[in-house]
Amino acid sequence: MPDRAYLHPIDPELVPGARNAINVCLRLKPQERITIITDTATREIAAALQTEVEQVGSDYSLFVLEHHARRPLKYMPELILDDLARSQVSIFAAQTQTDELPARTQMTSVVNKHKIRHGHMVNINRQIMLEGMRADFVKVDDLSERLVERARKAERITCKTPHGTEFEAELSPQLRWLKTSGIITKDKWGNLPGGEIFTAPFNTNGVFVVDGVVGDYLCERFGDLESNPLTIEVENNRTNTACTHVIGHILQDEKIPGVHIAFGHPYAEHTGANWVSKTHIDCVGRDFDIWFDGEQVMRGGKFLV
Description:
With 305 residues, the protein is α/β, with parallel strands linked by helices. The chain folds into 2 domains: 12-133, 3-Layer(aba) Sandwich (Thermophilic metalloprotease-like), CATH 3.40.1830.10; 136-303, no CATH class. The chain contains 9 helices and 16 strands. The strands form 4 sheets. Strands 11-10-6-5-14-15-16 form a 7-stranded antiparallel sheet, covered by helices on one side. A hairpin with a 2-residue loop joins β14 (289-292) and β15 (295-299). α1 (15-25) crosses α2. It is globular and about 55 Å long. The protein starts with 14 loop residues before the first helix and ends with a strand. The model has no long low-confidence stretch (mean pLDDT 91).
């Protein structure tokens, strides 16, 4: 059976971000159905989301993961997957644990199959609800659209930072660019807060200095890497302006204007890449200069478009 998220008054500080998620990012309608998936650590945020759903008047189910399976998850419970398949909208607002990506992939496979508008709030916390989730996502989407239109025409993207990054990606017209700006459609689920455009590059070369954060469960372990950066050498193979500084949390930090790279799953079902992976680790840097085919689009972490 579905669960209930709140037994106590809702924290009013969480309301603006929750309202943004339900009304702006997911555009939930009264006649639609929504599934909310959360965990015990995130129930306060889930409760704020639930109250906004009730304000809209939509039918919903809410599931607390620990009530239905042992953590870390080896699989997503069938009860949750079956409920998800009946919804037009969904939210995953929970904390990650080691080796749970396959379980989340089971969930997003249902999302993709049924073209559900899905908000992925993985590792969401109070600070992100008070910062990145209060963004004007209509403006974020407008900026993201200008950038992705340019990126789709580019053959090469170059980025540099004063901290040592000199990195270049060769692009292919056979590999698609995606926009996840926070305005979520049935064609591509997205993280919340949103603010990215991305693709799977044809080839990459250079040095990438990770002086921001790394993703998944590694983010909680290592936090902000500014004082102890990771340098990655590669040979042959974000756009939310409300996110202004590294907070040591990948869900928001990967939206800081600049470049981040990821090792692992290329979201082949959307990008057209011909391979898959069981992991996906994001790596974030700081203070980027970026060029699309020699035309500069960012200087010192500030957009020029």
